[in-house]
UniProtKB/TrEMBL annotation:
Lineage of the organism: Bacteria, Pseudomonadati, Pseudomonadota, Gammaproteobacteria, Thiotrichales
InterPro entries the record matches: Antitoxin_Phd/YefM, YefM-like_sf
Organism: Leucothrix pacifica
Name of the featured protein: Antitoxin
UniProt superkingdom: Bacteria
Entry function: Antitoxin component of a type II toxin-antitoxin (TA) system.
Length: 79
């Protein structure tokens, strides 16, 4: 449903109720508009966001990777 800003202010509870129960609500001020949607719909738009820890933990396994330091002497250089 479309609302003018003044009407949406006066009936804000109804705007929120309709956004939660049915569909997004458009609020217009002059030539600008905003959309009021439920948090559930907002989360669907964002898609599943993976935390940094989960992203790093889902990477390739480092098991079996040799991380030991090479003990061989370094090369000689002149300074």
């Amino acid at each position: 449903m479309d609302w003018q800003l003044a009407e949406a202010k006066n009936r804000f509870s109804e705007v929120v109720r309709r956004a939660l129960l049915s569909e997004p609500q458009r609020i217009t001020r002059r030539n600008d508009s905003v959309i009021v949607i439920s948090e559930k719909e907002y989360q669907k738009l964002l898609g599943k966001q993976v935390s940094l820890v989960d992203y790093l933990m889902s990477g390739p396994s480092l098991e079996g990777l040799d991380l030991a330091r090479d003990k061989s002497p370094m090369r000689d250089i002149e300074l």
